[in-house]
Specification:
mainly alpha; Arc Repressor Mutant, subunit A; Tetracycline Repressor, domain 2; 9 helices
């Protein structure tokens, strides 16, 4: 292993160390009350070291989304790659994948959806923003591919598959944000999974061709 490669590995190890610490602090204190100093203390690093890897708290917060998006892509590629499934079965597999992605890290995925609807994106470095956009675009493309298959098979309505993917994603994110906000007001109101199941079922029925 060369010197440059060792340096890159060490840099990535330190970056992951900071991200893990940030997740802990954001979980305990929330985004607003968390400071870079809090995260540095949790990571056992100096605040100055954090700024070598992330230009501000917004960028660190947004970086938590990358792992979720990468995992989402892995699950979607698995669904698309399963040649034994027809279009309807792939929709069911897609729904299972979305539940799996949510269970992978509920807090981070909720934060990611808040990020999408906030001004935080404007404070990110061009490199991080481009990475998030590329992963998001790839995810939607993989979802759209499933709908495209259903359209070609004559199972789904002949609508633009990327529009269908956008609606599916908006449904997923909207229900999660709405149900999580209800749970904040009343912890007994934990109907996320039931509501998602109903939402996805209605969506699936809505895109079916009447003559199928």
């Amino acid at each position: 292993m060369g010197i440059q490669e060792r340096k890159e590995r060490e840099r990535e190890r330190r970056r992951q160390q900071i991200i893990v610490a940030a997740k802990r602090v954001f979980s305990e204190k929330g985004f607003t009350r968390t400071t870079m100093e809090d995260i540095a203390k949790e990571a056992e690093l100096s605040p100055g070291t954090l700024y070598l890897y992330f230009k501000n708290k917004d960028e660190l917060y947004a970086s938590l989304s990358l792992r979720i998006l990468q995992y989402l892509i892995i699950r979607l590629e698995h669904v698309n790659g399963n040649a034994s499934l027809d279009a309807n079965q792939k929709i069911d597999a897609l729904v299972d994948a979305m539940f799996d992605v949510y269970e992978f890290d509920p807090l981070v995925i909720i934060n990611m959806f808040h990020l999408q609807s906030s001004e935080t994106l404007k404070n990110l470095s061009p490199q991080l923003l481009a990475e998030i956009e590329a992963l998001s675009r790839k995810s939607l493309g993989l979802i759209a591919k499933i709908f495209e298959m259903g359209i070609e098979e004559g199972v789904f309505l002949d609508r633009h598959p990327f529009a269908m993917a956008d609606i599916f994603w908006a449904l997923f994110s909207g229900v999660i944000l709405w149900e999580s906000s209800k749970k904040i007001m009343d912890e007994k109101k934990d109907y996320l999974k039931q509501t998602l199941r109903v939402s996805f079922d209605i969506f699936k029925k809505g895109i079916q061709r009447e003559d199928y």
